[in-house]
Amino acid sequence: MITRLLSLSPAVRLRLAVLVLLLLTITATHVGQGVLVAQSLARIFAGRPVSSIVWFLAGIAALQFVRSLVLAVRESVALRASGAVKAELRRRLTAKLLRLGPGWTQRDRTGSTQTSLVDGVETVDAYVGRFLPQTIAALLGAVGVTSFLFVLDPIIGVVVLVCAVLIPVLPLLSKRMLKDRNAAWFRGYKGLYAENLDALQGMATLKAFNASGRRGRELAALAEKFCRDSIRLMAVVVLYLGGVAFVVGLGTAVALGVGAMRLVAGELSATELLLILMLTAECFRPLKELEAAYHSSYSAIPSLTAIFEVLDAPVQSQGSRSASRHDVGFHDVTFTYRDRDRPALDRFTLQVAPGERVALVGRSGAGKTTVAALLLRFFDPERGRITIGGTDIRDLPLDELRSLIAVVSQDTYLFHGTVRHNLTLARPDATDEEIEAAVRAARADFVHDLPQGLDTIVGERGLKLSGGERQRIAIARALLKDAPILILDEATSSVDAANESGIQQALDALTGGRTTIMIAHRLSTVRDADRVVVMADGRIVEEGDHAGLLDRGGVYARLVAAQEGSA
User: Fold this and answer.
1) 3 state DSSP class of 337
2) E strand or H helix at 227, and its extent?
3) β-strand 539-544 against 328-335: which pairing, if any?
4) What pLDDT is stored for residue 65 in this prediction?
5) Cβ contact 27:137 at 8 Å
6) Which DSSP state fits 525?
7) pLDDT in tens, 351-380
8) CA nearest neighbour of 125 among 268, 334, 321, 293
9) Which of 250, 252, 283, 538 could anchor a disulfide with 346, C-beta 3.0 to 4.6 Å?
10) CB burial of residue 203 (10 Å; 0-12, 13-18, 19+)
């Protein structure tokens, strides 16, 4: 994990090296200060006048001033180092999630993914900016000071070295327990975040059904469980911190005790004992700072593990071929959604000729929308193949595949931005004239009545617009893309009766000459399709034109009769 973090940005290794150098400089100032204090105390104890230690005191003040400057520089460099890693992690995560697509993101809840993308990345601050450089500096600093102690007195040097070695061993003893509790803590954190986000997004529904109190109690129970997981994790961390404090105290006490006995035996001078006392404290000081850095960064381990799981997730393979024709074929396709037992499509075979308009109808759960998702390669089928112009879509570059297809879905998603921004997602280089033509064709002239026209902010998910207005913008977006293959997934589902006829005319004009798959529940919208395909349980049970299927009196005729009877 450390190697991967260091490889994220070329500047990180240099900045970490600078951080280690700065930390060693801080350790050197502490050691120098300890030596000067020991020399000063030795002179005072020997009855020398205060004037004999003036230069020592000046040296102590100078070292403190240098240390203050180095500490300020360290904070700046640490922020820059961790900032570079965070920026690169966010860039790679965003790019990877976009490559993985909705098929992968649907495996987990939005709040859980957001936790890794936002909060998880933030934990890098303490891990990269403090823990990693402190680990190296503590090791080098402890070795350097212990070597000095060996020169003064080998026996005390061995005592301090043994205690110093015990401190890095403590995390290894608690690693297994800490790993399990860290994982439980992060799972609880992601779950709590996801549930709170879900409640926030569904606030209107909770209020409408007077369920906000019940939901609040459920969230409180989750928060209580997360609190228990946090306490279990902190118990291990506190145990480790207590062990570090005990080893530091033990090492200092033993070194001082041995030094005192050797002083009595005449084997050490008072000055040497004072030096040992000061240097023993300085030997353990970087290790105690490492303990504090570990305490502030322990949550980064599960967060970074989750981040690298996303970065390591396999992406869909893609080829380099191109499609010269725009007919669409499904050949014996079987597909089952994750955590489902029954296939959404079962040996599904369909051929759509270039320019043909095919309507897919059937009851909810028949597999109609799955056809669109597979054609866009949000998922890959378990068996069979899907082709455009005779070329397997897995052999097409994903960008080229999706450039061939325009979509108007029943769940229209508009981003928080202007109307113009949402339209030009289809074609960023579209001119004002082209945008205006698409708006007129989609009967979306209402945009000119908005406060800032095309530059009006539509709000999150387009909530400042009505459902019909959002749908017409989506239709205009598909018109602007001008792709040869069109998917209409209940394109008029949110349009009122007064506007349905006009929009249907616009869609009829849009589908002219394009290979079109129309997914419909409202069967009145498919009367003019070249072919109607009736689906049930992921299979085709009937197909033909509207009139022929009615005359046949089968499944389609019963669906039409049911809708007309309920109208």
Assistant:
1) coil
2) helix 212-264
3) unpaired
4) 93
5) yes
6) G
7) 999 989 999 998 888 888 899 989 999 889
8) 293
9) 538
10) exposed
Residues 124 and 304 sit within 8 Å (Cβ to Cβ)? yes
Q: How far is CA 322 from CA 125, 134, 405, 514, in A?
A: 45, 53, 14, 18
Q: How far apart are CA 273 and CA 263, in angstroms?
A: 7
Cα distance between residue 122 and residue 303, in whole Å: 9
pLDDT of residue 69: 94
Q: Please, which pLDDT band fits residue 168 given cuts at 50, 70 and 90?
A: low
In which order are the strands placed within the sheet that holds 383-388?
345-352, 328-335, 383-388, 391-392
- pLDDT score recorded for residue 217: 87
Q: Which two tokens stand for residue 93?
A: 């995560």
Task: Read off the pLDDT band of 16 (50, 70, 90).
Answer: confident
| DSSP tag of 129 | I
Residue 18 in tokens: 């600078």
Q: Domains plus CATH for the chain?
A: 2-312 (1.20.1560.10), 328-566 (3.40.50.300)
Closest Cα partner for 528 from 510, 546, 509?
Answer: 546
User: Which stretch of 248-257, 286-295, 537-546 has the lowest confidence by average pLDDT?
Assistant: 286-295
List Cβ neighbours of 503 (8 Å cut-off, separation of 6 or more).
442, 443, 471, 472, 475, 491, 492, 495
